[in-house]
Amino acid sequence: xxxxxxxxxxxxxxxxxxxxxxxxxxxxxxxxxxxxxxxxxxxxxxxxxxxxxxxxxxxxxxxxxxxxxxxxxxxxxxxxxxxxxxxxxxxxxxxxxxxxxxxxxxxxxxxxxxxxxxxxxxxxxxxxxxxxxxxxxxxxxxxxxxxxxxxxxxxxxxxxxxxxxxxxxxxxxxxxxxxxxxxxxxxxxxxxxxxxxxxxxxxxxxxxxxxxxxxxx
Amino acid sequence: xxxxxxxxxxxxxxxxxxxxxxxxxxxxxxxxxxxxxxxxxxxxxxxxxxxxxxxxxxxxxxxxxxxxxxxxxxxxxxxxxxxxxxxxxxxxxxxxxxxxxxxxxxxxxxxxxxxxxxxxxxxxxxxxxxxxxxxxxxxxxxxxxxxxxxxxxxxxxxxxxxxxxxxxxxxxxxxxxxxxxxxxxxxxxxxxxxxxxxxxxxxxxxxxxxxxxxxxx
DNA sequence: TGCCATTGGACAGACAGTCTAGACACGCTG
DNA sequence: CAGCGTGTCTAGACTGTCTGTCCAATGGCA
Lengths: 217, 217
Known about the structure:
The structure is a homodimer.
Chain A: H1 5-32, H2 40-47, H3 51-57, H4 61-72, H5 76-84, H6 90-107, H7 109-118, H8 123-149, H9 159-169, H10 172-180, H11 185-200
Chain B binds a DNA duplex through helix 1 and helix 3.
């Protein structure tokens, strides 16, 4: 049986191309917001293949969503977060992390809005959302620790509260809400960054005396 | 044909009771998170009626969700917001509005988490979410204007940004995120209120009593 | 030629929504 | 009280759509 093992490799190129066509179709439909009204037949048509072929690549409708979710793992903005949370300068760490979150949400917005939407009923989407939420929580936890150990966490702000706030600031829903309010990605990043700095960081060698000044009481 | 003047009014009590049984069943299933996996038959079974009867009260599966959504219109916390946004004291207006938002989200959390979840694919749910979002936006807009006209909007904060921030602070998603982080409703209200005051309000007689006393730092 | 991805189509099972005939409860009138 | 009219509920049959499975046939590529 091992006699021709190498062949499978070569051959698989064709199969891979088909798989790619399917994924593209799913991405398109997702981006158009019509994936969830589409039948498997329509997905196959869009990909220019037979329904049976689709089922050979993806066991079920949910597997299609699963496939899409896997592609996020290599998103550069997402990968960058792992590093920015531990940048030496806490202020920079905070700002860059926020910035990268916005970058990620923005880059996949069309698709995420659909996936997040159905996470309540679609197991595969729910998996994705839960995993992303857990990942983000882990990163933010690291960021909070970093702020704490470098002594830049504002006095009176517990680590638990700091984490909660960071989660809100960097959540996809907040991104959506602000974008819906008409803010551009740039404004959004700036606004979220400032808010975080204002509420979380102590001292204020930075902008506007944002924090300290406001609460003399 | 007109021989009898019939009183549908009297009769309707029975019909109303049936309708109520159906709604209860839907609420239960929604709260258990299993509505979206349930067939119409199962909903009917849960309500203890025939499937045909259900279809007489609600034309389709979506109408069931619609029915639930209508019940939110009379939620006391939601109604209260209309008044709190214009309380004479801006500080109080802000705090009470935030508080009422939390109260509303909290009172219907089990069901909203499901409805918001499927809003991307369920037209009825989407309608609800869109309507709620529009309503909230309207109220927050009024609140911002109020803060502005009374001169309490912090300098450097445009009305547009103030609105965006308020929308984030009072959004269901933020509520969910903070609750998931382990905050109680009380902590949540306090935290959101403080954040709003810190970021939006100028001056700072900061009502040490009402809410402010909580931050001795 | 032989492998393998692909294809078209048949098929079973599940479910939404429609329809009909009949059972039942209740209000009205005599 | 008796009985008719009316609206509600019920049981079940039926259609159409969609998912997921299976298989025999096709076609490209080494």
